[in-house]
TrEMBL record:
The lineage of its organism: Eukaryota, Viridiplantae, Streptophyta, Embryophyta, Tracheophyta. It holds the Pfam family PsbQ. Gene3D superfamilies: Oxygen-evolving enhancer protein 3 (PsbQ), four-helix up-down bundle. It comes from Abeliophyllum distichum. Belongs to the PsbQ family. It is found in: Plastid, Chloroplast thylakoid membrane. It comes from the Eukaryota. Residues 1-36 form the signal peptide. Its main location: plastid. InterPro entries: PsbQ-like_dom_sf (IPR023222), PSII_PsbQ (IPR008797), PSII_PsbQ_pln (IPR054099). This is PsbQ-like protein 3.
Length: 151
């Protein structure tokens, strides 16, 4: 004979249902901006003039990672790479947003290529893969020269 669940809820089951409902309500109320958009990527925090003034310096700082790569100081190279690339990324993004609609697609493609190479270099440095490090570094140099010549 198979056991049948009781037809009336037990005290334990009632307590679990109440606690589960309470946790659900508190979780829903606690979500302040989880479903809101993050406008920091769509509205730059800097002006076009600030971006144009800083882009050369940030680009040079990105290329200075070469010295650390030659010394095979990969951890330090990663730190500098991340810092300089994030500043450069913001500069280029701000400048692209100020360009006309016809120019943007090409610049966005170059932007994507540049920062995909930066990400590749970061991973290659993490893995200490010398060959891949230098491939990515040379890709960064080419992409950076290309995008700077068009901006």
């Amino acid at each position: 004979m198979a056991l049948q669940p009781p037809s009336h809820p037990t005290t334990r089951r009632k307590t679990l249902n109440i606690l589960t409902s309470l946790i659900l309500v508190l979780t829903i109320q606690k979500q302040d901006t989880a479903n809101a958009l993050d406008f920091r990527m769509t509205v730059p925090d800097q002006t076009l003039e600030e971006a144009e003034a800083g882009i050369q310096t940030h680009a040079q700082n990105l290329l200075k990672v070469k010295d650390l790569l030659m010394e095979e100081s990969y951890k330090e190279a990663q730190k500098n790479l991340r810092k300089s690339s994030s500043l450069l990324k913001q500069d280029i993004y701000t400048i692209i947003q100020a360009k006309s609609g016809k120019e943007r697609p090409v610049l966005r493609k170059l932007y994507s290529d540049l920062f995909n190479s930066v990400t590749g270099l970061d991973y290659a440095a993490r893995d200490k893969d010398r060959t891949r490090v230098w491939e990515c570094y040379h890709s960064i140099v080419l992409a950076l020269n290309d995008i700077l010549s068009r901006i």
